[in-house]
Amino acid sequence: MNHKVEISIIIPAFNEEKTISECLKRTLSYCLDKHSDFEIIIAEDGSDDNTVKIIEDFTQKDERIKLISIKERLGKGGAIANAMLTAKKKYVAFMDADLSADPFEFQRLFEEITNFDIVIGSRLLRGNLSSVKRPAYRTLFSYLYSMLFRFLFKIPIHDPQCGFKLFRQEVIPDLFMKIKTTRFAFDSEVVVNAYNIGLRIKEVPIIWRHEKASKISVITQIKEMGQDLLSVWYESYVLYQQNSGVYPEKKGSRKTRVLFWFLSLYKKSRD
Question: pTM for this structure?
Answer without folding.
Answer: 0.86
